[in-house]
Amino acid sequence: MMPELKAMLPEWIGLAVLCWMFTVELLHGDAPRDPKTKGVYRVPVGGLAVIVLSLLFVCGKKAAAFGGIFQSDMPAVSMKLFFSAAAFFLLPMFRKYFTDAGPRLSEFLLVFWICFLGMFFLVSSRDFLLLFISLEIVTLSFYIMTSYAKKDTESIEAGLKYLILGSLASAFMIFGISLLYAATGSTAFEAVRVAFTADPQNTLMLIGLLLILSALGFKIAAVPFHLWAPDVYQGAPPPVAAFLAVGSKAAGIMVLINLLSDVFGAFEPGRKMLFSVLAFMTILYGNLGALVQTNIRRLFGYSSIGHAGYLLIALAANPQDGYAAAFYYLMAYAVSTLTAFYVINITVQAVGSSAIADFRGLASRSPWLAGAMFMALLSLAGVPPLAGFAGKFFVLLAAVKAGLTALALTGALAVAVSLFYYLNVVRVMYVDESIKESPVPITLSDKVILTVLMAGMILIGFYQSPFLQISLRAVSAAK
């Protein structure tokens, strides 16, 4: 098999699926807006299954394409499997929301698939130009998806805010890359690594590095680049907010790991100091900001900022422990967040509001949804023995091993703060009486998906050793 074909096999399949989706849309674009009759939904689901098989085929085989600017290795394949697993749970959410809410599902899935493929190229980039192009594909897709509910003024407002602040982050990124090119004469990771290792005090390269880190801080909603998160989470359609919370954050963290390990390994002790300060501010701001929220999607916006802080702790720790802890945390965070947003997606459509007060009596109206949300909130708070506890444990353990005891204590205290606002939602669901008595409808397929997600929270929390081994293998080439 040709090296380029082997390295990019999942991407070629993804592009073929994209072409097929375009064909389906062109042939049936003027037909009635019933996605069930067009196969629009089945195409990406089938494509995902084939992509997962191709990822398993190339797993463990290091290969490069296009002169080394694209690389398929274990960390990249692991993240692509992560994105694919998340997409399997996001697709039913998209279908449910856009079938009930009115906007066309077929057009939305095209944008989603472009974003999904952009993430694949992003984590395999070994050149700053490919990195920037991939990042812009992902970001532009998110702008469209955020504002896709055209009749919802909050969605349009969220998309506009995201666009304005995202454009600033893109400017930081391209300016940082231009400074690196001015200092080294190349945009390849390897060439920049050699130059930076030889002269780690080079002013141009340091400024370029800080600008690039600032742009990536925007992607993971780290303080002080977090301003977009609460408004976008509140205004975007719930499935899009879930995709932002899981996909954007995971992609940003993986790119940071790639840069710190493959390019800026000589950035010591600046790495530990910089990420420690960012982690402290991010955890503090995210958790304190969530305390006063009355909208559940806005609450998760602030909560996502707090979770970004834990991931930054992992990046501040020693690479051999911290990077594996970050991947473990991403798995725990993803399964818990997807569960919570799956419940939010169903409940918001039933009650017509995302105010926390409108979740009153959910336990009596839908015990299944309330139970899934209860478990997700406990996991996100870090209550044992669920997935979130294991994720936080390994992150804080890595911090202690790196001598960041004060930062680890900050993370531990933040757990207590997060319990307050998470348990407030639990109180509303289980203690407060509902004004409406009608049950919240939930289908059998919804129950199956929620059961799988809840099982994931339990398995990742209980069986820490196998998932830790997966995390270690996932970042084995990034240490």
Structure described in brief:
The protein has about 475 residues and is an all-alpha fold. It has helices spanning about 5, 10-30, 40-60, 75-100, 105-125, 130-145, 155-185, 190-200, 205-220, 230-235, 240-260, 270-290, 295-315, 320-350, 360-365, 365-380, 385-400, 405-430, 445-460, 465-475; strands at about 65, 70. The protein has a domain at about 270-479.
Distance between the termini: 29 Å
Shape: globular
Low-confidence stretches: none
Largest sheet, in brief, is:
2 strands, antiparallel
- Helix amount, in percent? over 70%
Beta-strand residue fraction: under 5%
What's the count of strands? 2
What class, by secondary structure content? Answer: mainly alpha
Q: What would you report as the Rg, rounded to the nearest angstrom?
A: 21 Å
Number of helices in the DSSP assignment: 20
User: Which whole number gives the mean pLDDT?
Assistant: 87
Biggest sheet: strand arrangement: 1-2
Instruction: Please provide the ordered H/E string of secondary-structure elements.
Output: HHHEEHHHHHHHHHHHHHHHHH
Q: Topology, pairings included?
A:
Layout: H1 3-7, H2 9-28, H3 42-58, E1 63-65, E2 70-72, H4 74-101, H5 105-124, H6 128-146, H7 153-184, H8 189-198, H9 203-219, H10 229-235, H11 238-262, H12 270-290, H13 296-316, H14 319-351, H15 362-365, H16 367-381, H17 387-401, H18 405-430, H19 444-462, H20 464-474
Antiparallel strand pairs: 1-2
Helix pairs in contact: 2-3, 2-5, 3-4, 4-5, 4-11, 4-14, 5-6, 6-7, 6-11, 7-9, 7-10, 9-11, 10-11, 10-13, 11-13, 11-14, 12-13, 12-18, 13-14, 13-17, 13-18, 14-16, 14-17, 14-19, 14-20, 16-18, 16-19, 17-18, 17-19
